[in-house]
């Protein structure tokens, strides 16, 4: 297993800047899930989030009822993504399952969200999972993501060849 300090979260900037409202708990679960994604994953891949790992990284502990409410709400919320061609409403999850007595969630992503998570050639944000999980406020977590997206955009602009 990778060092927890080395785990990265990567997402398309359409998700970073999309309109959605997640609690700090929901963002932690989302970030932890995104850190588990690998380019070679099968389309119907199920991901497991072990709560003892989340607790170890965040220092915050959630109970079954809190997790159930958090994942229930996550499943019903949509991401709104707008570009020049379309306005798209996406749901992140096909399935979220809390395995009773085992202390982990089993999650399957929706097919429509996968391009925003896997096909990341440009216009994406990347950050350390550990850093994002240490932030406790949902607003600070979103500002952290947005700031990193702006920083990457500026860096990419600086690397472009210039005409003289």
TrEMBL record:
Coiled coil: none
Residues of the Initiator Rep protein WH1 domain: 9-145
Protein origin, superkingdom: Bacteria
Database matches in SUPFAM superfamilies: Winged helix' DNA-binding domain (SSF46785)
Pfam families assigned: Rep3_N (PF01051)
Alphabetized InterPro entries for the sequence: Initiator_Rep_WH1, WH-like_DNA-bd_sf, WH_DNA-bd_sf
Family: Belongs to the initiator RepB protein family.
Name of this chain's protein: Replication initiation protein
Organism for this UniProt entry: Hymenobacter humi
